[in-house]
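Person: Please comment on this record:
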Amino acid sequence: MRSHLYRLLKWPEVKQAAQDRAVILVPVAALEQHGFHLPVHMDNLAVEHVTEEAARRSEGLILVMPPVHYGFNEHNMGFPGTINIREQVFMDFCYDIGHSLTRQGFDRIVYVNAHGSNQMLCNLVARRLVNTTPALAAALPHWNLSKDVVDKIRESEFPGGMAHACEFETSIYLHLKPELVESEKMAAEMPSKLSKFMYSDLFGDSPVHFVNRYSRAARSGVEGDPFKATAEKGKQIVEAEIANLIEFARNFRDLPDLPDVNFNYQKPV
């Protein structure tokens, strides 16, 4: 059986994967500050694990690309450790990956994102691929796949308690790489909970979209309460995401390929 990792395939194997209609996952993340207690590669760690493990368990259904390690991050540039890619550069780069895949014959592409500010850009990239190629493309933040589990195990205040280096992300890190978490350095802050109209939480958008520069309001870089994190919560979150990602990939591949129809008036020749 061929590898679930695109990077390990020979070109005839890539061709066969396209012929077999494998669903391609493109993990997208960021390098950025994650408070005093988590390493800056948190987003990459999470999305690489979820996508690669989903692909490994999928029995050939899913093929996963090498990750896009850097994201749109201007709002975090007040903190060391953050790398920012300009919006249009990021979108063009991600689009070119997807477009290259469509030229190889892949027709189901999913951008799996791990950094909040990438999401609106990934959404546009997926829509651009649908509008310019025969393929179907979608985009999702990995945390959306764990919502049912998080609703049951969450202890953080809502809204505002799960946004960045918080109970959610720290739990994942405690599950995957506990030796790198410096729990004694944790801090809890909710700098973006401004009003009933404006707040930040991974599991519920506020009525108004507003993202300020982090360094204007947060001293630690945290949005939420990492003290409520546990490795067991992280395991439940990650396992839910993997299972749901496999199920979604199967559903996405089974979508019908519908023909374009032009309902506009066309003047007779």
